[in-house]
Amino acid sequence: MMRFVMMVGLVVFASSLQSAEQDKAKSALEAIESNRGGRHWVEQETAPPKSPADSLSAIRIEPGYEISLFAAEPLVRDPVAICFDRHGDMYVVEYGDYPIGPEDGGDPLSKIVMLEDSDGDGIADRRHVFADKLDFAHSMMAYQGGLLVGAKTKVLYLKDTDGDHVADVRETVFDGFTPAHPQMQIGNPRWGIDNWVYLNYGPGKITSATDPDSAVALPRKDFRFHPQTMEFEADSGMGQFGNTVDRWGHRFYCTNRNPIITTFLAPNVMARNPFHIVSAPYYDVAPSGGQSHVFPLVAMKSNYLSHAGTHTSACGTTAYTGDLGDETFRNSVLVCEPIGHLVTRSIVDTDSLKFTAKRAQPKSDFVASADTWFRPSSLATGPDGALYLADMYRLWVEHPKFLPPEIAAKLDWRAGDDRGRIYRIVPSGSAARPFTAPESDADCVALLADDNGWRQFLGQRLLVEQQATGQAASLRKLLASEAPTTRLHALWTLDGLSAIKPSDVLQMCSDTNVHCRVAAAKLAGGMIDVDAVHDRLISLAGDSSQQVRFQVALSLADDESEQATSALTQLARRDGHDSAFADGLLTSLKQRSGAVLVGLMDDDSFPRSGDAGTLDLVRRLAAVVGARGNWSELRSVFESLGRDGSENWWRAAAIAGIGDGLPRYRGDRGRMTLPNLIAKPPAELGDSIVELKAVFDRSGEIAVDPEQAVADRVAAIELMAYQPFDAAARTFAELLSSGQPVQIQSACLEALQRNGSAGAAQIVLDRWTQLGPSVRGTAIAFLLRRTESTRLTLDAMSEGKMNPSALGIDQRVRLLKHADEALRDQATKLFGGVVSPNRQKVAKDYEGALAMTADAAHGKQVFTRVCASCHRISGEGHETGPDLTDVRNRSKPALLYDILDPNAKVEPRFTSYSILTAEGSVFTGLIESETSEAVILKMAEGKTKTIGRAEIDQMKASDVSLMPEGIEKDISPQQMADLLAYLKDR
Question: The whole model's pTM is what?
Answer without folding.
Answer: 0.79
